[in-house]
Structure formats: C-alpha cells, structure tokens
Amino acid sequence: MMCSNKDKNNCCDSCCCCCSHNQSCNDNGGKDVGDERYTVRRVRLTNNGWFVARLQFVYVDSQGRSIRTRGTGDIRLNQTVQVDPGDYGVPEGATFRIHASVVAGRDKTSTESFVYGSSGSYGADFITTGTTLINSLVFDGLFWIYGDSSNDSEPRGEVIDDEFHLQQNCDENQES
After folding, report:
1. Domain ranges of the chain
2. Alpha carbons 172 and 143: distance in angstroms, whole number
3. Are 29 and 69 in contact (CB under 8 A)?
4. Angle made by CA atoms 98, 82, 84, in degrees to the nearest 5
5. CA 135, CA 15: separation in Å to the nearest integer?
6. Which of 159, 87, 94, 98 minimizes the C-alpha distance to 126?
7. pLDDT per residue as tens, the chain (176 positions)
C-alpha cells in the first residue's frame, strides 16, 4: 500500500507512518523496528501522565483482522509495568503494536511495530505523558534482555538510532 500523500515528510491519515515520495507505509523510512533480527519479548510502559492507563497490544491475525488483546491492570501516574506480549495473547511471530488504553480519555496506539518472539533478545520501552484528553505514547528505545529473568535491575543495553547499534548502558554498570 502506498501513501496517498506523496509530499515529503507529511503524514497521511490512512497510513501508519510518515512517508516520502514513493515510500510504502510499511517501509516507515527505515525506522520501523518490526524486524525479525530485533524480536521483542517484553514491553515496558512507564506512565508519566495524569491518568490511569492499561497496556494492550494490537496485532493482525491470519485472516487479516486487527485484534486488540486484553489489558493489564491499572497503571497509575509514575508507575511502570513490564510484560510479555505472549501472556496477553500475541501469537509467536506476529507483528504487533502497543496500545495504551486511557481510562476516561483518548487511547493511543504506537506507530512502531515489533515482531513478537518468546525467546527474543529485546524489550521495548514506552512512556505515556499528558492528561486524559491531551496525551502521548512515545517509543523510548529497545533494550537488550540478558538471561530469562524479567527483573528490571539486570544490566541492559540500549539500541540507538536507525541502525540499532547496541550500546552498553554505562550508568547501570558504574560503581564509582
């Protein structure tokens, strides 16, 4: 599917991304992290907004239907939750997006998509901000998962820029 708006760097309502001339929506200008080399098995959402949110996932099933999964419990201001999308119904190998359901407000769905894998090596960080009616859901990068523990205190690296270079997170490893 091609964007109907072919002006450089302008978004079109029917597309999931900003498109340049002759660039497909699924291409996302090289910024789509839905690449099998970066299989995601955890999603972490930090709610910095003045609202209660619930984390859900949206994926397309084999029949082409868009499916929204059940949600987590309430995530209040300054709370963080980390979950495995498979525990909420995202099938192995499915491409999914993050959906923040805002209680009594406007929901947000990420523009970034990810491939789910129960043995993936990455997690995706998201942050919500704002109020019930004026809010945002922001992708805050990928992090490397060491081992099988979901403990947030484990060392992690951050994936930076469009080339997904792994950079060790020095702040967590410095002891001086």
Report:
1. 1-32, 33-173
2. 13
3. no
4. 70
5. 20
6. 98
7. 233 333 333 333 333 333 333 333 344 344 455 555 679 999 999 999 999 999 999 999 999 999 999 999 999 999 999 999 999 999 999 999 999 999 999 999 999 999 999 999 999 999 999 999 999 999 999 999 986 554 443 333 333 333 333 333 333 344 44
- Least Cα distance to 123 among 16, 33, 26 occurs for 33
Which residue's entry shows tokens 């490893």?
173
Which phi and psi (to 5°) does residue 90 adopt? -75, 120
Task: Check: pTM over 0.85? Answer yes or no.
Answer: no
Dig out the tokens for 52 from the structure.
Answer: 């209660």
Encoding tokens for residue 18? 């900003």
Contact 137, 109 (CB under 8 A): yes
Which residue is listed with tokens 């704002």? 130
Look-up: residue for tokens 């995530």? Answer: 75
Question: Sign of dihedral through CA atoms 104, 106, 109, 110?
Answer: negative
Q: Into which CATH architecture does domain 33-173 fall? A: Sandwich (2.60)
